[in-house]
């Protein structure tokens, strides 16, 4: 793997910590430092701020309900109806509720035919979505609120807030609670959706997450509190890591393996006992999901190795097909395989009538545009630059696979598939200290589009040891001639330990954090990559 860096600080440079922060802001192309560091509260933003046109379902449903509208939520069954609008799903909604209006949450921008079908049944449609637009917009929709800068829950949050503001004279007895929810529970839910959907934490999405994390301290929703309690992260400040790796996977797991309506019930209930029961059910389903993903990923890795026509070469796009992978987890399998082999990856599984596919990509390759270029083989496709979902007829699989292989060979260069790691700063170890890390905290929250700063340093290995219940993690200690020892943690990299010897000169890429365990503050790094200097 090749290491590169954006800026270099020399030992003789006398930069202050604030100047280093400014350097990082400039390298991230932040034009307005003050607005980035102090984003406005989402309550002060409106849809007009996004330009025309401009846990989402829970936010939108409850806002309408508390304003006195007759409204019912409907969550399509992933396996039986697919994601978003489908004729089968629209028929079910018509039969159950016979609504005058359907408002979508996080889908619909590409569903031209399905929306036209709904209008033939006398149902009006409003679309709220953030996914990539298709060639044609659904013109039969009454209105389209399409904001790519937000997550689906973020769009729903601002849309719901506009509805609330549009009915100032509605007196339902719930207006004070609703006004409060937009700075507490709804904002916390919008931040969960923003982080879970890997939306860049810049602009309005940064406002949602920065203020949403603070909102967790004031939430009243018993279901959300029970998720946090069941996860073992109560009585602490909620972080983007907590949301991305602990809270959101639990909420999503039930929809992947069973029906997402239980997640909605948990987020909406005011009953403590019901919330407790649902939170534990979702926690157990999440464990089942983890085990299923682990087993399926191992199978997928074996399939990848069988695809090698040359022992040293893999196809430029990996296509893996199975009759038994659960369609609710194929996106997770694709993510793991794409990360492991650094290739755009398509994972397909057979359903009753079709093949369902999920795709994940590398940063340099727009997977949704690629799949749309092959739309003649597909029933539908939608997504983002690095993630997509698609469906195809069973008899199109061989033709589709051949087309993917042929087109990818022309579009993807060998250099695109070389793993790279880019650090923000190449910096001597002597410049690393607790004060620097505390100065960097003004850049939080970190996440997609605003990653935690990474550093590239060279030092001498002065110690290493394994830790963890199964000794699967590695801890190393390095220093240079003028620095104190720096502790670096490498998760799930115990296999590196047999390559290490005291006195080795090594290059390391790492992020920094403050370990505040037990009331003490201690500097440490999270190791991203280690390279031996010959």
UniProtKB/TrEMBL annotation:
Residues 424-524 form the RecJ OB domain. The keyword Calcium does not apply. GO terms for biological process: DNA recombination; DNA repair. Keywords: Exonuclease, Hydrolase, Nuclease. InterPro entries: DDH_dom, DHH_sf, DHHA1_dom, RecJ, RecJ_OB, SSDNA_exonuclease_RecJ. The keyword Hydrolase applies. This is Single-stranded-DNA-specific exonuclease RecJ. It comes from Candidatus Roizmanbacteria bacterium GW2011_GWA2_34_18.
């Amino acid at each position: 793997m090749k290491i590169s860096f954006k800026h270099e600080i020399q030992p003789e440079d006398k930069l202050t910590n604030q100047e280093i922060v400014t350097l990082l802001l400039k390298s991230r192309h932040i034009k307005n430092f003050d607005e980035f560091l102090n984003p406005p509260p989402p309550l002060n933003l409106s849809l007009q701020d996004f330009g025309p046109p401009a846990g989402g379902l829970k936010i939108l449903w409850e806002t309408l309900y508390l304003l006195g509208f007759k409204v019912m939520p409907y969550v399509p069954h992933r396996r039986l109806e697919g994601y978003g609008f489908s004729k089968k799903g629209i028929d079910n909604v018509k039969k159950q509720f016979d609504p005058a209006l359907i408002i979508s949450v996080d889908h619909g921008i590409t569903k031209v035919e399905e929306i036209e079908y709904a209008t033939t049944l006398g149902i009006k449609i409003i679309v709220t979505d953030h996914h990539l637009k298709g060639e044609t917009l659904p013109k039969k929709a009454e209105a389209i609120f399409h904001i790519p800068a937000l997550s689906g829950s973020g769009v729903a949050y601002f849309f719901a807030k506009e509805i609330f503001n549009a009915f100032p004279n509605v007196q339902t007895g719930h207006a004070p609670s609703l006004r409060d929810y937009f700075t507490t529970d709804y904002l916390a839910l919008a931040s969960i959706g923003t982080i879970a959907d890997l939306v860049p934490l810049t602009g309005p999405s940064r406002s949602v997450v920065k203020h949403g994390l603070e909102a967790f301290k004031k939430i009243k929703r018993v279901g959300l509190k029970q998720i946090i309690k069941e996860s073992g992260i109560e009585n602490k400040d909620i972080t983007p890591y907590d949301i991305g790796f602990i809270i959101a996977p639990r909420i999503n797991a039930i929809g992947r393996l069973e029906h997402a309506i239980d997640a909605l019930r948990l987020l909406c209930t005011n009953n403590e006992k019901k919330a407790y029961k649902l939170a534990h059910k979702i926690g157990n389903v999440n464990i089942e999901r983890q085990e299923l993903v682990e087993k399926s990923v191992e199978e997928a890795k074996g399939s990848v190795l069988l695809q090698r026509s040359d022992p040293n070469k893999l196809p430029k796009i990996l296509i893996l097909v199975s009759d038994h992978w659960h369609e609710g987890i194929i996106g997770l399998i694709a993510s793991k395989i794409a990360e492991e082999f650094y290739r755009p990856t398509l994972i397909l599984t057979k359903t009753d009538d079709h093949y369902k596919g999920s795709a994940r990509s590398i940063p340099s390759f727009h997977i949704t545009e690629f799949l749309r270029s092959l739309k003649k083989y597909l029933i539908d496709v939608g997504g983002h630059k690095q993630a997509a979902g698609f469906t195809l007829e069973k008899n199109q699989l061989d033709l589709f696979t051949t087309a993917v292989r042929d087109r990818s060979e022309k579009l993807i260069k060998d250099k695109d598939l070389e793993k790279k790691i880019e650090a923000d700063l190449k910096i001597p170890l002597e410049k690393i200290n607790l004060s620097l890390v505390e100065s960097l905290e003004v850049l939080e929250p970190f996440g997609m589009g605003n990653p935690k700063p990474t550093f590239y340093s060279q030092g001498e290995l002065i110690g290493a040891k394994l830790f963890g219940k199964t000794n699967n993690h590695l801890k190393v200690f390095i220093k240079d001639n003028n620095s104190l020892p720096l502790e670096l943690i490498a998760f799930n990299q115990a296999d590196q330990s047999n390559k290490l010897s005291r006195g080795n000169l090594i290059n390391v890429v790492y992020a920094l954090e403050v370990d505040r365990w037990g009331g003490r503050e201690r500097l440490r790094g999270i190791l991203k990559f280690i390279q031996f200097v010959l």
